[in-house]
Amino acid sequence: MSFDNVYEALTGDGDARWAFGTGFTDPLAGVETAVPPGVDRADLTAYCLMLGDDALVMSHRLQEWCTNAPDLEEEVALANIALDLLGQARLLYARAGHADGTGRGEDHYAFFRGEEEFAGVRLVETPRGDFGDLIAKLLVFSTWRLALLQRLIPSRDPVLAAIAAKGVKEVAYHRDHAARWTVRLGDGTDESHRRMQAGLDRIWPLVAELFTPHEAEVRSARSGVGADPADLRAEFDAVLDQVLTAATLRRPDVPPDPGGRRGLHTGALGLLLAELQSVARAHPEATW
Amino acid sequence: MVTAVTDARAVAETVTDPELPILTLADLGVLRDVAEEDGRVVVAITPTYSGCPAMDAMRADLVRALRAAGHDEVEVRTVLHPPWSTDWISAEGRRKLADAGISPPGAAPRRARGPIPLALGPTVRTVRCPRCGSADTEETSAFGPTACRALHRCRACLEPFEHVKEI
Ligand SMILES: [Zn+2]
């Protein structure tokens, strides 16, 4: 009964769907969705949206490398990483929809919220830049996210815990990939070293924000649902030191650009969302 | 209902993976359970990776196969915990992979408590070339045509091949 390819199965129910690949099922279909007693629904919602927004926006920036990567293998690698993060975002948005009690699906959160409602960190929204910028951003992001997801495996919210346990396996591969590129470029030619260092220097002002807790993060950590980002800094620093030493690169010494997850974004996010959301907003009644 | 569940399980176990049609969902360890609840067949599947794009195709294939076998009421549920591991690929599944020229995974990493160690060098793991059997192979990329496959190359016969990477 199987199809020769995945696309036939997705479009095989007739022409009710207006485009390929639409009509996705809730990625948490059939999962026990009850929120455990004592877990604050508003905080759990906010927390899932923060982690989901980080993953969605980072995934979008990685997708921009399709047809732009230096070689085919790298393009495939970046697309794979983008797909893992998109999957994490879908699961987290679905969980947010349970937690806030509205049952809203992933499409609502991805396509029908405004820029000021996105709670992702600014690091992920910075424009594509060159390959040195990309690797610097991927190294910082995956090192931070791996440390974070690992701390969510014992979360009191069983769905968040399960999403994190899957994500840890994936992001460990992402971090290794970014770290190996950092060493290859940093300990490479004069030009690759210069551009890898420049990529780190440009991203570094936004690193401090990753460890600046939002109130919902602090409360989530206190209640055993989330993790306090301030607690991730030592592990992050140890990994970065190991990579930068092997890569003969220096840790940038630049003042932090203070921020936090407060709905304040760089100008780049609005442009990114305009593209990401344009089709869904142009056809709001479409079966999606 | 024991017979009905046994039959439903047998049918579900014939459904193949959309991305690796040489394997059944059962071979892959994605089919987690087939049960009967209030006259309905309830099938549990788990995604290999968070972003697995084939979950919808798997659900549709399972429902279609079970309905064709006379099970009218079918529900397919997702289970996320515990997360899928390549250790769940059956011996039969590993044999089918090798026969198709895809190197089966080794043991999944066993992680101790504490931070996950960084792997700065290339992955060191004995992966045998599925064509000539040589162990003189290297990883060219940890990321391949689907989320679960890495790209390798054989230094003996010089052919590229895919390897199901351990998670
Ligand atoms: Zn060979």
Give structural notes.
The complex is a heterodimer of chains A (288) and B (167). In chain A, 58% of the residues lie in helices and 0% in strands. By secondary structure, chain A is mainly alpha-helical. Chain A has one domain: Ferritin, CATH 1.20.1260.10. Chain B has 167 residues and is an alpha/beta fold. Chain B folds into two domains: 4-78, 2-Layer Sandwich (GMP Synthetase, Chain A, domain 3); 101-106 and 123-164, no CATH class. Chain B is built from four helices and seven strands, in the order H-H-E-E-H-E-H-E-E-E-E. Chain B has helices at residues 2-12, 25-28, 55-68, 91-99; strands at 31-37, 40-45, 74-78, 102-103, 137-141, 149-154, 160-164. In chain B, the strands form two sheets. Chain B has a four-stranded mixed sheet. In chain B, strands 1-2-3 form a three-stranded mixed sheet. The longest helix of chain B has 14 residues, at 55-68. Chain B is elongated, with a radius of gyration of 18 Å. Chains A and B meet through helix 1, helix 3, helix 5, helix 6 and helix 9 of A and helix 3 and strand 3 of B. Residues 129, 131-132, 134, 154, 156-157, 159 of chain B line the site of zinc ion (ZN).
